[in-house]
Amino acid sequence: MAVYSIEIVALSFVKEGYFLRFYFWLDLISTLTMILDLSWINDLLSGSGGLQTATSIVKIARASRVSKIGARSMKLIRLLRLIRVLKLYKSASNQLQKEN
To answer: What is the pLDDT of residues 55-84, one digit of tens each?
Structure first.
């Protein structure tokens, strides 16, 4: 965050037409929102303690397991579709050979 703040100050001095323009405000807002990523500031704002953090970790772990299961099932479905398409291709190829 400090590096981005230094960059904003440096660009304000070096780049003509940067200070108080669109990209200045865009950079400033994006740098200020990085404050909310700090865990201790986020805890102060939300008033959460260790128990809420532990329950959120458990929820994230459960969601991770569910997403892994979903990803595996999607791979299986894709494989089954591929096998189906290959069977259809094979039967179509056999039909064309019989007609010739």
So the answer is: 777 888 888 888 888 888 888 898 889 999
d(CA 32, CA 16): 23
Task: pLDDT band for 52, please (50, 70, 90 cuts).
Answer: low
At 42, the pLDDT band (50, 70, 90 cuts) reads: confident
Residue whose pair of structure tokens reads 């007609």 in the numeric block: 99
Cβ neighbours of residue 8 closer than 8 Å, sequence gap 6 or more: 24, 27, 28, 31
- Name the residue ranges covered by the structural domains of the chain: 1-37, 48-100
CA 95 to chain centre: 47
Neighbours of 87 (CB within 10 A): 10
